[in-house]
Design goal:
By secondary structure, the protein is mainly β. The protein has one domain: Beta Complex (Metal Binding Protein, Guanine Nucleotide Exchange Factor, Chain A). It is built from no helices and 15 strands. It has strands at residues 16-17, 26-29, 34-38, 41-46, 50-53, 60-63, 73-82, 86-95, 98-106, 121-123, 130-133, 136-137, 139-140, 149-150, 154-155. The strands form 4 sheets. Strands 2-5-6-10-9-8-7 form a 7-stranded antiparallel beta sheet, with no helix packed on it. A hairpin with a 2-residue loop joins strand 8 and strand 9 (98-106).
Length: 167
């Protein structure tokens, strides 16, 4: 145990521990192939996502608007504030005649350190039909608020799991 948390999982070959991620979060553009599917339709497909990594959280992928299908994003309700990135705008999606509320978020006017990803949209992998990274189906980060993307190359424990509310 460290700081009252479960023991850090030792990463294996080709893996990363979320406990090695920085705070404030890092941001890097990645060429990994990220796909989001909703209602059986590919709604986003990119090799130009921004990968944001923060201590104790699985990575979050922010997809450029130009790589999201036209006319599927609909302004959502509410907002939230990140002490590092700024105020988040929420997005719903319209696929066919089906409106799915608050499936993603963006930072339209982020703080200076995150300006490069302004307007890019992150999706909650547990709220869309399917999200993949390089063909691997993503597992959502636990807890309704968090939007981390868990793949086999990332190990925890992850914030959001039972018993982590005090982290």
């Amino acid at each position: 145990m460290f700081g009252g948390r479960r023991q850090r999982i030792q990463p294996g070959h080709g893996q990363e521990s979320v406990w090695d991620y920085p705070r404030p979060p890092s941001m890097e553009q990645t060429t990994r192939h990220v796909v989001v599917v909703l209602g059986g339709q590919v709604v986003a497909d990119t090799t130009r996502a921004w990968r944001v990594c923060e201590t104790s959280h699985p990575p979050v992928y922010y997809l450029p608007r130009g790589d999201i299908a036209d006319d599927v994003l609909v302004p959502g309700h509410g907002s939230s504030f990140c002490e590092f990135k700024g105020t988040a705008t929420y997005w719903s999606m319209m696929v066919g005649d089906r409106l799915e509320p608050e499936l993603g978020w963006s930072y339209e006017n982020p703080s200076r350190a995150y300006l490069a990803m302004a307007g890019a949209v992150a999706f909650y992998p547990g709220r869309v039909g399917e999200a993949t990274v390089d063909g691997e189906r993503v597992r959502p980060q636990a807890g309704g608020f968090y939007g981390g993307w868990i793949t086999d190359d990332v190990v925890g424990p992850f914030k959001g799991e039972p018993g982590t509310s005090g982290w």
